[in-house]
Amino acid sequence: MRAVSVHRISMQPVFVSLVVCTIVIFFGAVGCQQGLPPKSEASSRAYPTEFLLGPEDVLEVVVFRNQDLSRQVVVRPDGMISMPLIGDVQAAGLTADQLAERITKRLKEFKENPAVSVSVKEINSYNVFVLGEVIRPGKYQLKSYTTLLQAISLAGGFTPYAAKNKLQVVRHIRNGDGAWREIRLAMPYDDILKGQGDPDYFMIKAGDTIVVP
Asked: Which of 14, 79, 112, 121 could link 58 by a cystine bridge, Cβ 3.0 to 4.6 Å?
């Protein structure tokens, strides 16, 4: 019996150690997850779910059962489109569904229960510029959402003289009063490779200029 008792006592430290290790591993894992958002969350933030219209995009606007009001239009440089009866309508910065809702609301002044649909025929507004120490600097027209590294790859990659950790993205955004202002986003290459920083910044937006010193 003494042998059994001694055996039980000798196992207690091992059992306690296992419990402590399990707790440390569990809470350590939780602590690590709190530092960075899950990949699925970062992905959903980085990639917009719907395309936002911009200048030079070609749109098909259909007003149900009214051919005279239906037409193919091009978004002007000022972001507007011109429609019969209602005149100019802001299109840039909206999704196709949002634009359809805006046209419908305007048409209600002239027609009862108008039904409007908007479809994108050509995407021409998603242009970015890559300048500096890349193989092929210039303007690039994109057809799908593109990350910073993908845009640099389209430009042929870095030259041997590129200061990769001094990357900048020059972006124009609207103030609360609607006026445009320029911001410069620092994009250190090492941080991008590690997945650090705000994932929204790594997604290139229409009109962005990537500067590689």
From this structure: 121
